[in-house]
Design brief:
single chain; 447 residues; alpha/beta; 6-stranded parallel beta sheet; 5-stranded parallel beta sheet; 17 helices; globular
Length: 447
């Protein structure tokens, strides 16, 4: 049987390709191949597709293979009409999808993935487009239906609420499709099916699933039970396999808790031995408390060019949100990385703004800690996520409607309507002041 997998459009006020690859969908592709299906992929967010320039002007790559998506201004959903910004469809244009579907021809089944819940309008448009061309079942999986299953059912697709691939065969069987048992250790034995691409600009991998921490603002521990670790030998084997196919210059690890695996040093040592002519990146916020000198020097020797530290905030919220990292952990990690030869060009810390109960001083103090230690800052706006402690508390306090439209949880949109956090103007004031601090020589005197 023939299955089509689709990575859908993004609808938002802003979107940028910071190494966005549908890694989960590529594992689903491998599972479908394992079960005997003929697998096809349309990734509407692959800026490096060799056919895309025939249909859209594709912005040139920026740093390390990242870059802007092709985009088209579209009408805002009614619920977002008051937001004074242009709303766009990001990714390949509809004409490209139409052409791809003609190339692929008839299929028996379609699977669409999803990531951020508030991007669901792009997911739904993609599903509508596919429904108008095919009279076959369409399944919707990914993060959005796992966090908002009832809302996702409104998409018109059949919702797959699981994350672990071992549940996929029974799901297919229940709907009359052939299947085959998936190995319990599929994460070890399966490679993400990158060979479905003609060309990519970078490669993304994950070496772990899940996270042992229970931060109040994060849902990863809910999405995955415990921490699953892929052996360093298999990770290296997979990287080498796809570097031989694609000849890219950038390889990205998108784990949620890569340092918690206990095997990352082993992986780094194997990478160092390979001496591949590529740059490596850790954009997903590593745990500062778990970093040691040996790891830092191995990162340098292995040619890591992007290292993000999870910091989030200063002040009492560090303890109240789970105690994952304190100021002293961040300072220690920054000093270790600088000792290994890294600068603010390679290392920065994620700082959240607009967390429940957070003050301006909490954010700016976190900025000062980072700048005084010679690392960069990445300020990200907070969004509540279903299933987290924050979410439950906000609902119990009457500060959030449990039946809220997910599009309102877009961190760009939240400050325009939510009365229990910072306003749009306050957030911009914080960001502007942080930029001034960044340029100030006061914070260039490193110990």
């Amino acid at each position: 049987m023939k299955v089509l997998l689709v990575n859908p459009w993004i609808h938002d006020f802003a979107a940028y390709d910071f190494w966005l690859k549908p890694i989960g969908l590529l594992y689903v592709a491998r599972a479908m191949e394992w079960m005997g299906y003929e697998v096809h992929l349309v990734d509407l967010l692959n800026r490096h597709d060799p056919d895309l320039p025939r249909f859209a002007r594709v912005p040139k790559d920026k740093r390390y293979g990242t870059g802007k998506f092709p985009s088209q201004v579209i009408e805002k959903p009614e619920i977002l009409k008051s937001v004074p910004r242009r709303y766009k469809r990001y990714g390949a244009p509809p004409e490209f999808l139409e052409w791809k579907l003609r190339e692929i021809g008839n299929v028996d089944l379609i699977m669409v993935t999803s990531t951020l819940s508030y991007w669901y309008p792009g997911v739904c448009e993609t599903i509508r487009f596919l429904k108008s061309r095919y009279d076959v079942p369409i399944f919707l999986g990914g993060v959005y239906p796992r966090l908002f299953p009832e809302h996702a059912k409104k998409s018109g697709a059949i919702v797959y609420e699981k994350g672990d691939l071992v549940f996929l065969p029974s799901f297919l069987e229940s709907l009359g499709f052939p299947s085959k048992e998936i190995p319990a250790d599929w994460f070890e034995v399966f490679d993400p099916m990158y060979e479905l691409y003609n060309r990519v600009g970078y490669l993304v991998f994950i070496t772990t699933l899940g996270c042992p921490f229970r931060c109040s603002y994060c849902a990863v521990h809910r999405l995955w039970n415990g921490l699953r670790v892929r052996t360093p030998e298999r990770v290296v084997e997979t990287i080498e396999k796809y570097l031989n196919i694609f000849k890219v210059e950038d390889v990205v690890f998108f784990d949620d808790a890569i340092l918690a695996s206990g095997r990352f040093k082993d992986l780094l040592k194997l990478i160092v031995e390979k001496r591949w002519p590529v740059r490596f990146h850790l954009p997903n916020g590593i745990h500062a408390r778990l970093l040691d000198e040996e790891t830092a020097f191995l990162l340098k020797e292995a040619n890591f060019r992007t290292i993000k530290l999870g910091y989030e905030t200063s002040g009492r919220l560090q303890r109240e949100t789970g105690g994952k990292v304190y100021d002293e952990d961040l300072v220690r990690a920054a000093r270790i990385l600088r000792k290994a030869g890294f600068t603010e060009k390679e290392v920065s810390a994620y700082i959240m703004v607009n967390m429940p109960g957070q003050t301006k001083e909490d954010v700016l103090n976190a900025v000062k800690v980072c700048l005084s230690e010679g690392i960069g800052i990445s300020i990200n706006e907070y969004t509540p996520i279903p299933g987290t402690k924050d979410w439950q508390k906000l609902i119990e306090e009457g500060k959030l409607d449990p039946d809220i439209d997910p599009v309102l949880l877009n961190n760009t949109v939240l400050p325009f309507w939510w009365k229990h956090g910072m306003s749009y103007e306050e957030i911009q004031e914080i960001k502007n002041f942080a930029q001034k601090l960044k340029k100030s020589e006061v914070y260039r005197e490193f110990p």
